[in-house]
Every structure is written in C-alpha cells, then in structure tokens.
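Render 9417_t:CDS:1 in 3D.
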Amino acid sequence: MADVEDPVIRETYEEVRDDRNDTNWLILQYESEKSDKLILAAKGPGGLEEFTEQLSPDQAAFGYLRMNVSNDELSVRTKFVFVTWIGSRVKVLRKAKLSVHVSDVKRVLNAYAIEITAHDKNDFIESEILTQLRKAGGANYDRGSHNY
C-alpha cells in the first residue's frame, strides 16, 4: 500500500483543480528508493511541457495535469489527466509496486478524464492527449459527420 497521506498532496491536488490557481500540474514520487511513501516532488504553472521536463528515466512517479480543451474559442473546457510514469531505467521491483500503488494514488487524485501510462517523454504528444480529452469529454465538433 502506498502512503499518500501527506496533506501537501491533497492541497496541491486542489490547487491544480482550481481554475483560478496558476498551478496546473503536479508530480508525486517516492520518498526514497525503498520507500512506499509518496511526496510532492514538483508542481508548476507551465503545462505539459514543463511537466515532462521534470521526468527522468530512473524515476517512478504519478502526475496530474489540468489542460484546456477547445473546439473553438467559445467552447473551452477544463479536463484533467492522471499520469503513471515508469521511466525506462526503473527497477523491476519498483515497477511491480507501482502497479499496485496506482489504486492508492487514484483515491487522492480521483477526478480525471483520461489516464496515461508513460515510459518515455515521447509518450506525451500534446495533440494526441488533447484528442483523447476531446473524445472523453462528450461533444466532439471535429468529426466530419453527425449522427442525429
């Protein structure tokens, strides 16, 4: 079981959820290599690009992002992304624990439209994520035909 009890985690989650707050992403990582305690490792206002800059190949982490999805200038919606990051150099035992710990983390970071499991920074292509968010968000005005 992962320890996600640090109140800073919940506070930062609420910051990311709040449209009036500049913070639009957070990263949780393990306190140490042998620990199951998760701590807030980073947060920021710089969106997906800044978020991915914080990830490293030897890191196992969880992330949460607020992204704006729009079909046009009049229909902007805020959507959230839950990320499980398993860097390419993460040890096998940590990978195994991570797969079990994800449910503990989701109890805290529990409101999101899509979930991404990534092993490489190239897994974060903004246009593809936005497409997934549009599909998860109901009305999609990008489709060529409509079924009424």
